[in-house]
Amino acid sequence: MAENNITLELKNVSKSFAKVENDEVTHALNSIDLTLRGGEFISLVGPSGCGKSTILRLVAGLINPTTGQITVDGKEILEPSPERGMMFQKSTLFPWLTVEKNIGFSLKMQGKLKGNEDKVERMLKVIGLESFRNDYPGQLSGGMAQRVALVRSLINEPDILLLDEPLGALDAFTRMNMQDEILKIWQENGQLAIMVTHDVDEAIYMGTRVIVMDANPGRIVADIKIDEGYPRDRSSESFVGYRNEILNRLHFGGGR
Ligand code: ADP
Ligand code: MG
Description:
- The chain is an alpha/beta fold.
- Helix content is 32%, strand content 25%.
- The protein has a 6-stranded mixed sheet with strand order 6-7-8-3-9-10, with helices on both faces. The protein has a 4-stranded antiparallel sheet with strand order 2-1-4-5, with helices on one face.
- A hairpin with a 4-residue loop joins β9 and β10 (219-225).
- It is globular, with a radius of gyration of 18 Å.
């Protein structure tokens, strides 16, 4: 497996937002310390509002922390970069571009489309939409559009891949296939992947680490290393053990 050697560090990172209704602030994140490295696949889980998307947006450089510092190899992140590819929670495609052109868009913007047409082909194949290449987003189902949005962020082979609930709109079967496809691409590129998911099984199936968060204020409550190779067996004893541990941290334990 290829591996890049980047180190992403969040040091004492907090993020507050002014509330619209009154003078109060939302403590979206409180004092986050994290060191993440190339080759890791980080699954972020936690209740709605615990700051998962905020972490991704900070790392993407779309917003800046209220306190603390975020660095890649010691260099502070201050703005977005193609080295950090993001797929948003509610990704939208360009409605005036075909599936194929949506996938190739960022390569084209960087003047890198020529000579990389095979990458677009590969991505079309990964998501099984070769025969939809000339369709427009309005003609696609929600799941198809989500798959296009996913590979659009993968195609740049960013050092840091940020995925905000990338598979949420997919049916269970397509979802499991796409989990394997994402893992394959991640393993080939050795990048640092950070994925938000609501699905605890997905978090364990894909992650080298599962980071569990809680809200008010947004914070990390557990950082669990998943000590298993790939592909993983969702019904193995160790898998079930991880599931119980994480559900307990999320306060969904069986009360045993
Ligand atoms: P999650 O992705 O875990 O559901 P978010 O990171 O989206 O949570 O949000 C964390 C908290 O910060 C929530 O209370 C949310 O309402 C608040 N928040 C996020 N972005 C903004 C913003 N731009 N303005 C005001 N409040 C925000
Ligand atoms: Mg979110």
